């Protein structure tokens, strides 16, 4: 689904405070560190807890494979300043024809600073600009109010609640479902582009 420009590991997205780039083997320690925390894993469907040794390396390898194939866009979230190691990951995955699914997880020390919203806007912009996707879907755990606010801030509309499989949580969990349609995004993107430069993909 993603074009050649995104299938090379030099591809990155820049925001006001962040770089979003392909994950690297050198990121494994940082990913292992925050993914091992229960407060991070508990709201996700696929981060196991306890987090097994070597899981970060396996995750990075799979993410790079998916990026190279153009199926998904899985990006490490890093800061413009300070250490280059990631403090979170964000992805859009092609699971249905013309539709992408969004997911993200950040280290607790990065919570409450607007990074999730900033990274989400960047990857959503890139997804619609680089693909023919008609909509992006996302889910949050019912009790995860912070993630719900991120999606609403980025234009996602609530589609109701339900139950979905969460393999790492051992079964089904209660979730809120969200959707962002291309037509809704286009209006917002046009308004933002009139004021600030678009996402830089270099």
Describe this structure in words.
This protein is α+β, with helices and mostly antiparallel strands and 202 residues long. It has a single domain, classed as Gcn5-related N-acetyltransferase (GNAT) (Aminopeptidase), CATH 3.40.630. It contains 6 helices and 9 strands; from the N terminus they run E-E-H-H-H-E-E-E-H-E-H-E-E-H-E. The protein has helices spanning 28-35, 38-41, 55-69, 115-130, 145-153, 182-193; strands spanning 12-14, 18-21, 72-79, 88-96, 99-106, 135-141, 157-166, 171-181, 200-201. Strands 7-8-6-5-4-3-2-1-9 form a 9-stranded mixed sheet, sandwiched between helices. Strand 5, helix 4 and strand 6 form a beta-alpha-beta unit. Helix 1 (28-35) packs across helix 3 (55-69). The longest helix has 16 residues, at 115-130. The chain starts with 11 loop residues before the first strand and ends with a strand.
Please outline the helices and strands:
Blueprint: E1 12-14, E2 18-21, H1 28-35, H2 38-41, H3 55-69, E3 72-79, E4 88-96, E5 99-106, H4 115-130, E6 135-141, H5 145-153, E7 157-166, E8 171-181, H6 182-193, E9 200-201
Parallel strand pairs: 5-6
Antiparallel strand pairs: 1-2, 1-9, 2-3, 3-4, 4-5, 6-8, 7-8
Helix pairs in contact: 1-3
Task: Write a concise keyword list for the protein shown above.
202 residues; alpha+beta; Aminopeptidase; 9-stranded mixed beta sheet; 6 helices
Query: SSE order in H/E notation?
Result: EEHHHEEEHEHEEHE
β-strand amount: 25-35%
Total domains, how many? 1
Q: Which class in CATH terms?
A: Alpha Beta
The global form is: globular
Oligomeric state:
single chain
**Which regions contain 5 or more consecutive residues with pLDDT less than 50?**
198-202
Query: What is the tally of beta strands?
Result: 9
Helix content: 25-40%
């Amino acid at each position: 689904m993603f074009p050649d420009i995104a299938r090379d590991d030099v591809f990155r997205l820049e925001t006001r405070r962040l770089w979003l780039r392909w994950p690297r083997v050198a990121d494994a320690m940082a990913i292992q560190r925050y993914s091992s925390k229960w407060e991070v894993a508990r709201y996700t469907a696929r981060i196991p807890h306890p987090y097994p040794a070597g899981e970060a390396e396996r995750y990075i390898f799979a993410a790079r494979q998916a990026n190279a194939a153009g199926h998904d866009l899985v990006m490490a979230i890093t800061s413009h300043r300070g250490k280059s190691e990631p403090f979170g990951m964000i992805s859009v995955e092609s699971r249905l024809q013309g539709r992408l699914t969004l997911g993200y997880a950040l280290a607790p020390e990065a919570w409450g600073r607007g990074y999730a919203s900033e990274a989400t806007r960047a990857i959503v912009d890139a997804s619609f600009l680089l693909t023919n996707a008609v909509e992006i879907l996302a889910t949050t755990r019912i009790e995860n109010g912070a993630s719900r606010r991120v999606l609403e801030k980025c234009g996602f509309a609530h589609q109701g609640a339900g139950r979905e499989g969460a393999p790492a949580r051992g079964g089904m969990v209660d979730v809120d479902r969200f959707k962002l349609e291309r037509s809704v995004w286009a209006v917002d993107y046009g308004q933002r582009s009139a004021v600030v430069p678009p996402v830089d993909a270099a």
